[in-house]
């Protein structure tokens, strides 16, 4: 980052960007108490991210000068009231922008009034100057837990289902593969004998699943840092311990490691795991995976026209770690200088660096933390390695890849050059998909 | 007294300057009759995300070849600007930029402490850093809601930096809350450009300014016949080229909603007259446009020749398109003047105007003239337009209108607006090139796209059967103006659907 803290080539958004966390919950509605452009900025950042009632459907108080001077609470009251007439939704989350934040409207008080009338509504403070969406994702989830889930605690006793877990992994939409990843995690965890609340996306049962959050025996966090305040909060609130896997498990090695860690944790927490059937499943998945790798190996080893031998990744910490491990051992592409642009808080950096230390005994992987991707690009412009290189990053990086003659795989936001529907990069199948994506792009360069 | 005042750092907002409206639902004729006498705009008791001036100001500045843009605010206020990096790369081909460079877009990344102690220090440092790293020919600083409310003195900071760095450092006041009409963001950018970039002419050139976005360079050929070159401003221009837009003999608008302020500033402050005509939307306005152009350039005969030749050349194909499109009902969703233009185009192609949702309405432009009133012109030629909605991009109003009107085709100009046509099984299209529909050629090019869209309706029909819809049944049965209060009162007496 520049010394004064500016950011070039923004790759995440501000706190109110966590409205996408709401969009990702089936039939939930974000309501913005903000300036008129916040929704447009966030939708424009994520693109193709409307879900059920996001994008231009989202109600918004569209602050004008009048509300800045006199406050906007009465306007918001009307908008919430009329939202119930116009839109058919199961959960409403009011998010505040900078204007409301500075003016000091009592949004919590207003939302409380609606809640007392029996409305499933939640408020959360998300002015852009109070942080980014990586952080406020946790604030939004915790607000829903405290203001909505808590109402259903009586019929959902804490830790009453030994084999049920809540899963917190990708940040919806910020991770372009979030929906596919959740589907894959759910499939894998179910096959080892767990019942999974994924909470977001088409695999979620919507608000009912949220109501059941307390029932889970423990939580799974797949992330180096973001989302951690959620599992810590649930630990305090419902006594649920959490099992953390600090990066996206991509390919066979890491997926197996992930599942074994979860199985061990589940057993320690008195879940009933059928070890035989879990092991059988793992073996089968792994066998099928390596049949594909075997098939590919000839191409990988014989294709003498040239394949990338090294990679730079510009992404969030979970992907930079997960992809580095996967590409080194399962594809044979060596991770060189890596760049983490998610504005990782200071206190988590050491743990992430430790993970990089342990990737390989014979290699040292240079890692830079810097949310100013402009500076990252300037650094990359000065780096040269022997052989054909690969750059995994965002839309901003296409031009850089061209300049440096690197193969380019867009896999981070903003994603101007790629459509992602429900593709997953996590899991066994995710690893195979990464390989397809890389080599298809390489092959496309041959005429 | 003109509306342009370059001595003030901030541009006057459209609501004040032009009496622009952001809420109305009724027929177009009533609007035109009342547009100069409305004392107060309408308001809504339910509203959805609209849009703000900041992104619009960024559009006009970040696409300048050699400029840098700093959004002075939290990181979110610049988060959608990556789309201009894409636009620049893709459209540079049409606009003859050989080596499209990366767009230089920065955020000062304001934090909570900055809202307490002010963000000016951070802005100062960022301006200096950006100058060092990007070596731009000019730096534009865009303000945001947070910066505006905490009262950062951005103007003084920019003026100081300008002195120190010896390049223009331009403060653009485009906070989202300033105006209900987000096109004020365009005005804000133009205001800054007119104040700090445009220089007095050294000489006059055989050149005509075209105020536009990224449309294909169709004016090159049109002006060449008169012996003039087109100077497209401000996207894809250079700071240098922009500086001497004052040396043009004339300015034309492709959309007076967009370029109103810059056209007026160039005329009033730099002596470049603005063409007194609506853009060439459809046959009548195209002929008027050529005649006005001929008159302004002293080449009336040339204009008549062109009109005659083009009529001969293009009318047969236009007639063919009319046969295919005759009787089809069109609904338009677009910005103010461009929307009026699309209605005119649809009617020129033999279609019926089923209604329109325009984002706001300018009763006047900065250089007021009846000749520029596209809506009045289309009413004179083709009659009234029903269901004319000034919607401020309120999706729920459009959804309710479409549910009842059920047009044969939806013609859009802005993102996310075709979706609701498609969800109702209505063939819908968006044209991003704002020049595509202009002139005789444009009528054909646009007409062909409409024919194709109506013919290829399998996708939207299938989508309609399977799509999800968050709107309640109750809402779909209500009139679109249910939550509209005040403004032009006639709206509730004149029926809609």
Task: Explain the layout of strands and helices.
The complex is a heterodimer of chains A (about 450) and B (about 500).
Chain A: E1 7-8, H1 19-23, E2 28-33, H2 38-46, H3 65-70, H4 73-86, E3 91-96, H5 98-103, H6 107-116, E4 121-124, H7 133-147, E5 161-168, H8 178-191, E6 195-197, H9 207-211, E7 216-222, H10 228-238, E8 242-245, H11 251-268, H12 275-302, E9 310-315, H13 317-331, E10 334-335, E11 338-340, H14 346-357, E12 367-369, H15 373-381, E13 389-393, H16 398-404, E14 407-410, H17 427-444
Helix pairs in contact in A: 7-10, 11-13, 11-17
Chain B: H1 14-17, E1 24-26, H2 28-34, E2 42-44, H3 53-62, E3 67-72, H4 82-91, E4 104-107, H5 112-117, H6 120-134, E5 138-143, H7 145-150, H8 154-165, E6 169-172, H9 184-196, E7 207-211, H10 219-224, E8 229-233, H11 239-243, E9 250-253, H12 256-270, H13 282-296, H14 300-325, E10 329-334, H15 336-348, E11 352-358, H16 374-382, E12 388-390, H17 395-405, E13 409-412, H18 418-423, E14 428-430, H19 439-455, H20 458-466, H21 473-477, E15 484-486
Parallel strand pairs in B: 3-4, 3-5, 5-6, 7-8, 7-9, 10-11, 10-13, 11-12, 13-14
Antiparallel strand pairs in B: 1-12, 2-15
């Amino acid at each position: 980052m520049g010394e004064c803290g500016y950011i070039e080539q923004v790759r995440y958004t501000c706190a109110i960007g966590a409205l996408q966390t709401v969009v990702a919950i089936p039939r939930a509605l974000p309501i913005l108490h903000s300036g008129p452009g916040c929704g447009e900025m966030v939708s424009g950042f994520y693109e193709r991210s409307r879900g059920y009632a996001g994008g231009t459907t989202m109600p918004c108080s569209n602050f004008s000068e009048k509300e800045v001077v006199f406050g906007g609470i009465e306007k918001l009251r009307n908008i919430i009231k009329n939202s119930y007439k116009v839109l058919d939704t199961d959960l409403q989350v009011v998010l505040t922008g900078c204007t409301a934040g500075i003016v000091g409207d009592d949004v919590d008080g207003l939302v409380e009034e609606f809640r007392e009338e029996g409305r499933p509504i939640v408020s959360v403070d998300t002015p852009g100057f109070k942080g980014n969406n990586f952080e406020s994702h946790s604030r939004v989830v915790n607000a829903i837990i405290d203001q909505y889930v808590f109402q259903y605690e009586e019929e959902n006793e804490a830790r009453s289902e030994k084999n049920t877990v809540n899963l917190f992994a990708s940040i919806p939409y910020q991770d372009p593969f979030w929906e596919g990843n959740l589907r894959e995690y759910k499939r894998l965890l179910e096959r080892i004998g767990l019942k999974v609340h994924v909470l977001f996306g088409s695999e979620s049962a919507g608000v009912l699943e949220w109501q059941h959050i307390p029932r889970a025996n423990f939580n799974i966090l797949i992330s180096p840092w973001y989302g951690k305040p959620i599992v810590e909060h649930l630990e305090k609130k419902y006594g649920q311990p959490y099992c953390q896997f600090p990066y996206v498990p991509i390919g066979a090695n890491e997926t197996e490691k992930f599942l074994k860690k979860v199985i061990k944790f589940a057993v320690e927490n008195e879940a009933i795991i059928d070890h035989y059937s879990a092991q059988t499943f793992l073996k089968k998945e792994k066998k099928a995976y390596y049949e594909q790798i075997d098939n590919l190996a000839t191409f990988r080893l014989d294709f003498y026209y040239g394949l990338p031998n090294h990679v730079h990744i510009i992404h969030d910490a979970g992907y930079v770690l997960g992809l580095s491990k996967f590409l080194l051992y399962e594809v044979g592409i060596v991770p060189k200088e890596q760049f983490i642009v998610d504005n990782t808080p200071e206190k988590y950096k050491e743990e992430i660096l430790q993970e990089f230390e342990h990737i390989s005994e014979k290699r040292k992987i240079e890692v830079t933390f810097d949310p100013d991707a402009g500076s990252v690009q300037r650094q990359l412009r000065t780096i040269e390695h022997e052989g054909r290189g690969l750059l995994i990053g965002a839309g901003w990086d296409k031009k850089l890849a061209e300049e440096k003659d690197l193969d380019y795989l867009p896999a981070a936001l903003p994603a101007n050059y790629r459509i992602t529907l429900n593709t997953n990069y996590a899991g066994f199948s995710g690893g195979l998909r990464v390989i397809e994506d890389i080599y298809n792009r390489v092959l496309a360069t041959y005429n | 007294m003109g509306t342009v005042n370059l001595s003030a750092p901030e541009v006057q907002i459209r609501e004040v300057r032009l009496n622009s409206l952001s809420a109305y639902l009724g027929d177009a004729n009533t609007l035109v009759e009342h547009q100069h006498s409305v004392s107060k705009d309408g308001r809504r008791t339910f509203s959805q995300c609209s849009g703000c001036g900041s992104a619009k100001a960024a559009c006009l500045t970040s696409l300048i070849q050699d400029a840098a843009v700093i959004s002075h605010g939290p990181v979110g206020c610049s988060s959608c600007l990556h789309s201009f990096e894409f636009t620049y790369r893709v459209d540079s081909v049409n606009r003859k930029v050989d080596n499209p460079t990366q767009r230089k877009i920065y955020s000062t990344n304001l934090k909570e402490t900055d809202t307490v102690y002010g963000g000016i220090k951070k802005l100062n440092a960022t301006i200096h850093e950006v100058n060092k790293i990007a070596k731009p020919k000019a730096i534009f600083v865009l303000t945001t809601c947070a910066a505006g409310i905490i009262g950062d003195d951005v103007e003084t900071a920019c003026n100081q930096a300008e002195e120190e760095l010896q390049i223009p450092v331009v403060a653009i006041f485009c906070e989202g809350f300033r105006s209900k009409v987000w096109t004020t963001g365009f005005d804000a950018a133009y205001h800054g450009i007119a104040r700090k970039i445009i220089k007095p002419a050294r000489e006059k050139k055989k050149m005509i300014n075209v105020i536009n976005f990224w449309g294909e360079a169709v004016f090159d050929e049109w002006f060449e016949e008169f012996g003039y070159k087109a100077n497209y401003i401000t996207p894809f221009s250079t700071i240098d080229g922009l500086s001497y837009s004052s040396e043009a003999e004339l300015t034309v608008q492709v959309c007076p909603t967009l370029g109103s302020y810059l056209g007026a500033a160039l005329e009033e402050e730099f002596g470049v007259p603005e063409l007194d005509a609506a853009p060439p939307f459809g046959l009548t306005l195209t002929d008027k446009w050529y005649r006005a152009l001929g008159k302004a350039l002293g080449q009336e005969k040339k204009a008549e020749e062109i009109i005659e030749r083009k009529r001969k050349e293009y009318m047969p194909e236009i007639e063919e398109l009319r046969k295919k499109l005759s009787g089809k009902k069109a609904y338009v969703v677009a910005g103010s003047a461009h929307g009026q233009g699309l209605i005119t185009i649809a009617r020129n192609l033999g279609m019926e105007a089923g209604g329109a949702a325009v984002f706001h309405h300018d009763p006047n432009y900065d250089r007021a003239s009846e000749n520029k009133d596209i809506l009045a012109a289309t009413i004179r030629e083709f009659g009234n337009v029903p269901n004319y909605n000034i919607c401020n991009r309120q999706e729920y109003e459009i959804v309710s209108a479409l549910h009842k009107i059920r047009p044969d085709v939806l013609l859009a100009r802005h993102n996310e607006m075709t979706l609701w046509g498609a969800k109702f099984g209505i063939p819908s299209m968006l044209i991003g090139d704002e020049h595509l529909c202009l002139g005789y050629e444009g009528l054909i090019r646009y007409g062909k796209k409409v024919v194709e869209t109506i013919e290829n309706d399998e996708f939207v029909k299938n989508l309609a059967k399977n799509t999800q819809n968050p709107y309640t049944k109750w809402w779909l049965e209500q009139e679109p103006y249910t939550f509209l209060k005040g403004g032009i009162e006639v709206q509730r007496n004149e029926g809609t659907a």
